[in-house]
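USER:
Try writing one entry.

ASSISTANT:
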Amino acid sequence: MITVEVAQRDVRSTFLGGFAGQLVSGVLWLASAALGTWGTRRSAILALVVGGVFIFPLTQLVLRAMGRRAALEPGNPLGQLARQVAFTVPLSLPLVAAATLYRPNWFYPSFMLVIGTHYLPFMFLYGMNMFGVLAGVLIAGAVLIGLYASASFALGGWVTGAVLVMFAFIGRALAAETRHAGDAARESR
């Protein structure tokens, strides 16, 4: 039987502490924000919503391009949790649509809120408290931008993209650090 700790270590190792997925997501958010700044709102919204469908396959492509496996070990029970958490985003899109229809400049803040809350279960999935910090930053950013800076359509897109890229590298470093610590502990036995 696989322990929770072993399953979490597999998730951290396979997905590099969320590196590839957050990097892909961050680049998508930045591209959408660029369209929202220099293009049209419609193109920005479509880019993020339609592009979001390709986050997982692109994440797997990035992992494979890095010479890494792109799937959890067979029998890892956290794979089911990962799939369930992934579906929270598309199932929340009607709420994002309602907020956007009410006030178009709430598109990014409402989507930030969805993405931020979606990262909360990642704390357990990866066994990394970093995801709680990421969730908190995105949720607080969504509220602050929605309440105090909603005159700018694309600000939330820029902030989210930058935060996701930054946390991609933090997650990768933390996952490597815990992997090295685990290797050292096994060698000392």
About this structure: The chain has one domain: 4-187. The two ends are 22 Å apart (CA to CA). The chain has a mean pLDDT of 94. Residues 155-187 form the longest helix (33 residues).
